Amino acid sequence: MLKYLGKDQFEGLEEVLAIARSVGWGAADILRSYYRGESDRGDLNIQEKKEGPVTAADLVTNQYILDNLQASFGTQDFGYLTEETYKFQSKGVLSPPLSQEWIWIIDPLDGTRDFIEQTGEYAVQIALVYQHRPIAAVVVWPEAEKLYYALKGGGTFVETRQGNATPVTVSQRQNLEDLSLVVSRTHRDERFNYLLQHLPCKNQQYVGSVGCKIATIIEQRADVYISLSSKSAPKDWDIAAPELILTEAGGKFTYLDGSPLNYNRGDVNQWGCLIASNGHCHEQLCNQTKEILEQLES
């Protein structure tokens, strides 16, 4: 079904994305039924884990996505890296990268705490990765009834429940002072607050899921998202799909030094400072962030 043709060209990728979009909508339906407390779904059964809360909605949706993708693609050529099935190893020991050529990276419910607290800012995230880089991505914002999708080199589109799809692009704002940051309500330590206080872009919006944050950027309601890990870090499944829908919409998503993100490396933690932006002053934003963090640590 899928073949690499060289120079970032793939045969059959559109058909693969069509399946992922269908699965994304189905997953959104499951989450919304739990979100609304529909009686046939039962209780959320919230469990507090080391990596954050897990609910019945996470587990049921994860199984739905896996069942449907594996029915279409099998397990010989395609690997599956999901938040709910990944086994964290003991400290200092990394799991080996998955060996298949094509890797599905899945977050069935990004923003579980927002889901529990009923902010509406949760998402389904599905990415297909080839040689450590995403080539197809779906991010669904169930409560907005929008599905964002992208192919490597093909742009980003937003699709409604009615099947209407339109291209989306980031804002054209180019001055740091005019940029709006999208930040979490939680996951903010003193170091991150210091950074926010000293960056020239002062406008801030609070949004939950990473997928919803990046959707806010490609919808031009914000321009910048920064992740600054301390004791914990975002995982591959938090970032892979949002990265592609941002970059194909004209934005950038890199490490602080401007290098590209990589996935399925064994360590699923994306340590360090990650910066996502509309791309127009990305290098300047990275440089200023680096200077501020160096001042704090000196």
TrEMBL record:
InterPro entries xrefs: CysQ/Inositol_MonoPase, Inositol_monophosphatase-like, Inositol_monophosphatase_CS
Enzyme Commission no: 3.1.3.25
Catalytic activity of the protein: a myo-inositol phosphate + H2O = myo-inositol + phosphate
A Pfam family per the record: Inositol_P
Primary enzyme class: hydrolase
Name of the featured protein: inositol-phosphate phosphatase
Organism for this UniProt entry: Floridaenema evergladense BLCC-F167
